[in-house]
Amino acid sequence: MTRGNAVVIGAAGQTGRVAVQALAEDGWEVTAASLSGGRDERWPGEVRAVRLDREDGAALSALLGDGADVLVDLVAYGRKHAGQLTGLADRIGSAVVISSGAVYEDGQGRGFDTQDAPDGAPRYPVPIPETQPTVAPGDTTYSTGKVLLERELLAAGEALPVTLLRAGAIHGPYCRSPRELYFVKRLLDGRTRRVLAYGGRSRFHPVHVANLAELIRLAALKPGSRVLNAGDPQAPTAEEIGGAVDAVLGRETETVLLDGPPQGTVGDHPWAIEHPVVYDMTAAERELGYRPVTGYTESLPETVAWLTGELRGREWTDAFPKMARNYGPDALFDYAAEDAWLKGYDQGAG
Asked: Could you count the other beta carbons within 10 Å of the beta carbon of residue 1?
């Protein structure tokens, strides 16, 4: 007996691979749609993999055919994609759509988009509930586009029950911009010291793909119109993450803590934020019965093994071109600048 038919858009991506597997193993008949039309070796044989250009509304309509009991959209963004889904509401039983924790705004109008401005670092409550205000909807930034997507979909009401998952920093294998690369590559390069800004206290709530897939699975079983945070059971500090990566690779690294912000590239890293970003998961537990299937440190060995495999025999900029574009080819691994700073630090300490 099957639970019904599920269509997953973005199935070949990092989250899609695991979401398709979770739904198929839970009894759904899954159509896995992606631009490549590829399939993951872990998927059951009955999963149907198809090609889909997410921008082609006619192709999406054709894919749905007579309808889907649940549609999972992992790549939806902005008004256009929201309009595609609401326009097909009569053929969609319910939807689960990935949003972002980046939508939140603090009480002073600060958010992810203001972090580089003077006094622009947001100061959120710890943890952040779903009732926290968001930035205004719009089409100028990633955050505003996600809010616009949320508003348009929620406005459909009972015509399209949709669960919007505000994901934290997604991690796990197949990530195109894996934050853990910062620590893994340094160890593979033989670095024995590292500098972390903000005293190593930065916390940016992660969510492993398996936990995100579990939230998707549960939301598919309990349709409704709502927004829910998506995070791991822990939100470790940058210093704790570095130590966990050390433990996986059997290394020891001296961590030098820089109290303030990065000094140029020195002390900068993918988690370098001044104030903590931690998401409240009680609503997901209450409404869906959510229980995480893994934790950050428990999931780390698989991620580290995947990263080391991807780096073997090639430059990190070739292995992860999107991350190189986001951060720049030298920003994360400017060893010359770091060594010069550490030399001055050692002399000052002496």
From this structure: 3
What does the block give as tokens for 113? 């988009």
- pLDDT exceeds cutoff 80 at 260: yes
- In which band, very low, low, confident or very high, does the pLDDT at 172 lie, cut at 50, 70 and 90? very high
Cα 90 to Cα 97: distance, rounded to the nearest angstrom:
17
Helix then strand then coil, in percent of the chain rounded to 5, is 40, 20, 40
Contacts of 58 by beta carbon, 8 Å cutoff, 6+ apart: none
H or E, element range at 166? strand 162-167
Gap between the Cα atoms of 316 and 313, Å rounded: 10
**Residue 293, amino acid:** V
Contact 282, 289 (CB under 8 A): no
- What is the C-alpha end-to-end distance of the chain, expressed in Å? 72
Of 99, 315, 277, which Cα lies nearest the Cα of 188? 315
* Residue 332 CB neighbours (<10 A): 20
Kindly report, residue by residue over 72-118, the tens digit of the pLDDT. 999 999 999 999 999 999 999 999 999 999 999 998 999 999 998 99
Q: Is the peptide bond before 127 cis (omega within 30 degrees of 0)?
A: yes
Cα distance between residue 150 and residue 103, in whole Å: 10
Q: What is the number of residues in the chain?
A: 350
Distance CA 185, CA 332 (A): 10
Answering whether pTM is above 0.70, one says yes
Burial code (b: 16+ CB inside 10 Å, e: under 16) for 281-299 equals: bebbeeebebebbbebbbb
